[in-house]
Amino acid sequence: MSTLAVVPRPSEKLSPIERLEALCDPGTLQLIRSDVMSSRMGGRARAGDGVIGGAGRVDGRPVFCYAQDPSYVGGSLGEAHADTIVRVLRLADRANAPVVGFIESAGARLQEGLLALGGYGRIFAEHVRLSGRVPQINVIAGASAGGGSYAPALTDFVVMTEAATMFLTGPAVVEEVMGEQLTAAELGGTKIHDRNGVSHFTAETDADAALLVRDLLGHLTIPRRGTAAPAPHAPDLVVPDDDRKVYDVRDVIRAIVDEGRLLEVCPRWARNVVTGFARLDGRSVGVIANQPRYLGGVLDAESAQKLSRFVDDCDRFGLPLVVLVDTPGFLPGSRQEQGGVIRHGAQVLRAFAGARVPKVTLVLRKAFGGALIAMNSKELGADMVFAWPRAQLGVMGPRQAAGIVHRRDIAAAPDPDAATGRFARAYAEEHLGARQAATLGAIDEVIAPADTRVRLAAALDVLDPLWGQTPLTAHESQGV
Fold first, then answer.
1. Looking at 369, 370, 381, 421, which residue is catalytic?
2. Where are the beta strands (DSSP E) in 321-466?
3. Which of 371, 437, 442, 459 is catalytic?
4. Is the pTM of this model over 0.85?
5. Residue 263: its pLDDT value, please?
6. Active site residue 146
7. Mind giving me the DSSP string for 108-160?
8. Angle, CA 414 vertex, CA 413 and CA 415 arms, to 5°
9. Residues 6+ away with beta carbon under 8 Å from 359
10. Which of 50, 146, 148, 188 is catalytic?
């Protein structure tokens, strides 16, 4: 994990300059000024008309950054303010380095009217132009309104502190126009945005947010570090034999990845799918897994959005994908159809099929129907597909299949439930087993759970040339 720079008052709200110092390696921050000179007074720096721009290093690697100053006209954005942010974004592009913004703004400055709105337009255009070229991360560190919420939504990752709020229109306007009386937190606090996918991460304080961003940048910019052992338990220890019983798939992930450590992305949004960054044998990877603990691990419209967005993120930054599958299929029902599950499900197919990074899939327990295809199947483009010995793969679950194939026999049986169970077991043995799937070519290999980490690492070693390189030395990790 990255080492956090020395931060004044770590439990309190930090000033703009302190936020940038917390992000950067100690002693590396250099301020960037546009057309407004700045000076330090009482631990603060004023520059760029209410915003401070900077360049520094994180883990020895270049980073560009800026922090809005709410003590200057509420952090509102004017023309000169926008000039500083645009300059920082363009320098990041020129240096091919990540850019991090600490956002706390009342929105467009009313006194500047169209010039302020034009400033936001220029910032939006720069964010879009940088998309896929360098990592862009925004930390919402206070109240952020209007364009101050649109700009973060154009970046790759959004972090909110517990004290932050973000909305297009504030509570006063909402009450006047809509008649709704809401506090800022009720309208756009962390409890709203970490459940709707707008915010990817929540941090308790400014200092925690800076540390989280350093950790995230490590996954995005340092592809290889020294390896570390996973959590000590066996990967299948928590997985029940009965496929109708739930478990937390994150326990499986911890038994596979280095240090048992997962930086989970959007952990409170669409919880039936887990997405996050981890290291496997020292190499940074994106991990995707069905989560049986919520809705049995089914796919639905929201989880499809979460999944496709994360696949695109990993592809953009060249991170191999490790996909763990345990799903009964897509969630049926009129609400899903009305919510566009077909459209969102198609985005998953498009994301996996179009991803150019190495993609490895492991079926843990079950994979049925369209969800089997959507979760990075071999036919969709997975480079390698593995399964544990007890995994089942097919068009649908054994009881449902038996109910269709043998419906007349079941209806005529004196005990229909017992007959369904008997036919289901026979159907599963004949059609759904992992070894049958291997024989048909749907999977490449049936592997023992104890061999999971080694087998996944070996597969990626073949697929990704960077995987086999020597881990970074201490000098290289410091950019020497």
1. 370
2. 321-327, 359-368, 384-387, 392-394, 445-446
3. 371
4. yes
5. 98
6. yes
7. B-GGGTHHHHHHHHHHHHHHHHHTTTS-EEEEEEEEEETHHHHHHHTSSEEEE
8. 90
9. 320, 321, 323, 352, 376, 381, 382, 383
10. 146
